[in-house]
Design brief:
Helicase, Ruva Protein, domain 3; 3-stranded antiparallel sheet; alpha+beta; two-stranded parallel sheet; 2 domains
């Protein structure tokens, strides 16, 4: 199970610290957080970040395979597949399933690049709140 910042119930102060990448709580363990640009890590010391890798080895064929294992009633355009090529392989099935669930909820049978942009914008708005 992958927990995202949106699904974790925490004090507003700590949520904002994770999203902004500053003001992490002084916990004597290692932990991390991933946003759309960086992985943030900290030990019981000053936090630091590393940029996400440019290429993770996923291509459209890997994404199409993950899609084929979900819901055959929902199709994806190549443009929509391209939008998630940077998702780490370990999270790919979870991301695809989440997108499929949202498409079903909205009555969409073809996931397009425009729908993917809408999903990204919605996620960004949730992180800002």
């Amino acid at each position: 199970m992958v927990l995202t910042i949106e699904k974790i119930v925490m004090k507003k102060k700590w949520k904002e610290a994770l999203i902004k990448g500053e003001g992490f709580p002084p916990i004597p363990i290692d932990y991390g957080f991933r946003n759309n640009v960086n992985f943030w890590f900290t030990k019981h010391s000053k936090h630091y970040k590393i940029p996400l890798p440019e290429r993770k080895g996923i291509d459209i064929n890997s994404i199409r395979y993950a899609i084929s294992r979900c819901d055959p009633d929902i199709q994806w355009t190549d443009e929509a597949c391209e939008k998630i090529v940077k998702v780490p392989r370990i999270f790919l099935n979870r991301v695809v399933q989440g997108i499929m669930d949202q498409a079903k909820k909205e009555g969409i049978t073809l996931v397009t690049g425009e729908f993917m942009d809408k999903m990204r914008d919605k996620r960004s708005d949730e992180q800002d709140n």
